Amino acid sequence: MPLIRLDKISMAFGAKPLLDNVDFQIDPGERVALVGLNGAGKSTLLKVVGGHHKADGGEFWVSPTCRIAELPQAMPAADERKVRDVVTAGLEDIWSLRQAYDEMAGSDNVDMAKLDKLQHQIEAVDGWHLEQRVQRVIEQLELPAEKSMSELSGGWRRRAALGAALVQQPDLLLLDEPTNHLDIETIEWLEQQLLEFKGGLLIISHDRALVDRLATRIVELDRGVLTSFPGSYSAYVELKQKLLEEEAKHNAEFDKKLAQEERWIRQGIKARRTRNEGRVRALKKMRNERADRRERSGKAKFALEEAARSGKLVAELNGVSLGYAGQTLFHDFDFLLQRGDRVGLIGPNGAGKSSLLGVLLGKQEPDSGNVKLGTNLKVAYFDQLRAQIDPEKTVIDNIAEGRESISINGRQRHLISYLNDFMFAPERARTPVKALSGGETNRVLLAKLFSQPANLLVLDEPTNDLDIETLELLEEIILDFDGTILLVSHDRSFLDNVVTSTLAFEGNGELREYVGGYQDWLRQKPKVVKPVDKIEKKSGQPEKFEAKEEKQAGKKKKLSYKLQRELDELPEKMEQAEVDLEALQEETGAADFYQQDHEKVAEKLAQLNAQEQLVEELMERWVELEAMQEE
Fold it and tell me: For 492, phi and psi rounded to 5 degrees?
């Protein structure tokens, strides 16, 4: 039986239908990722499922035994509440039942029937063991129960909010952009927690790596219609592109036929009084169908204003050290940044990424060492623009700065036309920034950034709240940019697709450079030291924790009979799995593969994804067992 079901749900804001006779359900154990352009209605659908919005039409059904919990997009407040109290607040409704029971049981005139009913309600939700449930979740998430929220970083406050959701023991967990403002270490921790969660998930996220790892099904909201794609995000992208090509081809053929029929009827009026009434009725139907067609929302197509080339040297650091509040952020660091480099900065929140940017740009003096800056640098700094955006002003007033037009690479553009490239229609461009969504506000920042001539782009978390299509376009723009790029991002896919080298903050003041992106860093980084989670102070600087060293490999134990047998059988299993994978790859790579029925294509792509995962799991198990063998 499904956990929730939507039957013919409709919802509109103004004349724009966000949900158009939508049918949708989630079954137990499913992990569903909801994708779509900014403004498509994803958060609205989540609020319908969460019971915060009532649909205009249709039926929303929830299983009587289904408990729904939410991890909201907004970060919990950094107030004086204890972490234990934040987690406990997730059980507020059950605490209310227990309080009512205690009050009724202690009164002089006890209504035994009502008391018995309350007792059954409490037992039905395991309400007599709330303290144990709270403690169990605190231990599971390794939360500092007695610390106040004001002492914690954003990542740890997000953990506390997750605790408040998990303590409810939900059957369905709703998550709206859960990775915003989290560092990569915390994102990977959250990812693992969600993989271990046994209930259903409905998640909105622009983090493609997270979606690819978590989702068992992708559901796209596009022009009010929900379409389900079984399998991974990667499989969805490939199939979606084919469907869009088919839709464009169908629409072009339809429009051509409609134009022919329009010419026929005009000629018919001049040539004769009587016409084929059946053909006339068919033409009217075609006109109505064309009028009802909802065009796909415009896609951003922005370009970057490039300045004259900088010198070959952008920045050179020799033996540079920097600390804050008595703690070393990095020490004895040597680094050469040259024109055309695209460098990613990764590390926990508070590790010193923004401080390093300040040193590289000459905005902050190091404690020791030498910094040499290049010539003819024109810097565009994404993060600094946030303070330059006035939420009370309209989009166009924030970008205009007294201008009516803007020059992009020698071409004059009217501001309305320029903002249309960032998916702002004329009426939306005249909207105050404070009324925009998070994704739209980020597009305003990008519009301002890209209107400035630059040969050095500094992007500090540019991907928050952007829809995936805009993210992918931003990647293309960065890859085509001839200048130099410094990028701070928690988006692992974005880093892998964009940067050519990575600066990693690895704790204890160690800052190292690696070739390639995030996955390349994972393969190259030292394996001896395992960093522990850090609880950060309000200032954003981490408290001092000693790294836990992994146990050094001494003499390893000989495998048990059972494990040795498993290891002996693995090569044959791996070989067969790879043969099956090659067959699926050949089948899905055939020229006529996507000409089949949509459901057959989706099913086969899901099989391909499952087979790829099987091959990877078998390989990982083989490596694990090999490492356990006696040396």
Answer: -65, -40
